[in-house]
């Protein structure tokens, strides 16, 4: 079933150059859209700064878990086991198919934002879905890799949200420092001294 779904999606690669270009662009460039959204949120107000910090914590923890799993578990990429339509850029043969770093990070970010801003979180989840589809389209991951990675990123964001009391002192300290720094007199003093 997993391979059949992979094959049904991946067999479309190479047939339509416009769709291939769109999928490659989504796969490689969507992270910059996430970064742009986080930067825009950061400069709105303290509420959005908190969301950005929680999303940063979720993605940081998710990245550590991702690295840990890849150190002890290896699942061959689809192109190592099957004849696939592989679109560039090709990942290393030594890079595990599960978990997908693209999807774990995208789903952690989307879930973190979803807790506080539903519309923006849903938009980020739609983008995460498109990233996952593009990774299958390009021949780099199985559907089970995408689903498992999305669950991993989401669960990490949920745990960070549940343990918000643990993170709050850290968040408050960063916000206090940022607010103090952006205070005009403090900023002017800093500029004069440096």
Automatic annotation (TrEMBL):
**Residue stretches making up the Phosphatidic acid phosphatase type 2/haloperoxidase domain:** 52-161
Alphabetical list of Pfam families matching this protein: PAP2 (PF01569)
Query: What are the transmembrane regions?
Result: 32-48, 54-73, 119-140, 146-167
Q: Which domain of life is it from?
A: Bacteria
Say if the entry is tagged with keyword Transmembrane: yes
Tell me which SMART domains the record gives.
acidPPc
Q: What are the record keywords, sorted?
A: Membrane, Transmembrane, Transmembrane helix
User: Under which name does UniProt file this protein?
Assistant: Undecaprenyl-diphosphatase
Which organism is this entry from? Ectobacillus funiculus
Give the classification, highest ranks.
Bacteria, Bacillati, Bacillota, Bacilli, Bacillales
């Amino acid at each position: 079933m997993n391979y059949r779904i992979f094959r049904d999606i991946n067999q479309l690669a190479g047939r339509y150059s416009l769709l291939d270009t769109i999928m490659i662009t989504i796969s490689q460039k969507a992270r910059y859209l996430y970064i742009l959204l986080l930067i825009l949120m950061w400069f709105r107000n303290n509420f959005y700064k908190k969301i950005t910090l929680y999303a940063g914590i979720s993605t940081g923890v998710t990245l550590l878990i991702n690295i840990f799993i890849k150190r002890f578990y290896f699942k061959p990429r689809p192109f190592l086991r099957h004849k696939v339509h592989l679109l560039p850029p090709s990942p290393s043969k030594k890079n595990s198919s599960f978990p997908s770093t693209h999807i774990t990070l995208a789903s952690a970010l989307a879930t973190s934002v979803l807790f506080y801003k539903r519309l923006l979180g849903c938009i980020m989840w739609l983008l995460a879905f498109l990233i996952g589809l593009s990774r299958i389209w390009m021949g780099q991951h199985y559907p089970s890799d995408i689903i498992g990675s999305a669950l991993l990123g989401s669960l990490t964001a949920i745990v960070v949200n549940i343990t918000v009391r643990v993170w709050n002192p850290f968040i408050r300290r960063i916000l206090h420092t940022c607010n103090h720094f952006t205070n005009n007199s403090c900023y002017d003093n800093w500029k004069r001294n440096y």
